[in-house]
Amino acid sequence: MGLEAATNAYQSALRWGDFDAAMGLLSPELRRDEELPQDLTDLRITRYEVVQPPVIRTDDSATQTVHIEYLFEYNQIVRRLTDRQVWRWDELDKAWWLQSGLPAF
After folding, report:
1. Are 82 and 63 in contact (CB under 8 A)?
2. 58: left (phi over 0), alpha (psi -120 to 50) or beta
3. Closest Cα to residue 69, out of 15, 22, 10?
4. pTM
5. Bridge-partner residues for 64, per DSSP?
6. Residue 105: strand, helix, or coil
7. DSSP secondary structure string for all residues of 13-46
8. 64 secondary structure, DSSP code
9. Burial tier of 27 (Cβ tally within 10 Å: 0-12, 13-18, 19+)
10. Alpha carbon distance 39, 58 (integer Å)
């Protein structure tokens, strides 16, 4: 999967609340170590804005910066965060994986 396809799939998964799919884009070693937080069931992403498109580095990594607005349905307070994503190219799998993990909502 190309970098643009991977970042778009991740954005779509978060926007639609499909956190299992978002976890599937994490690097394999992170997927083994990170469990899906239980408190994400009431999480709704209201805005996902790419402020710095992916920039590929020479070490087979890429960075992207996004602003995310979200709320938890139980309190309806809109919060904002900046997610500085680090993506890594895996030559064996021929895929880009999110190395930086899910944002801290």
Report:
1. no
2. alpha
3. 15
4. 0.90
5. 85
6. coil
7. HHHTT-HHHHHHTB-HHHHHH-PPPGGGGGEEEE
8. E
9. buried
10. 37
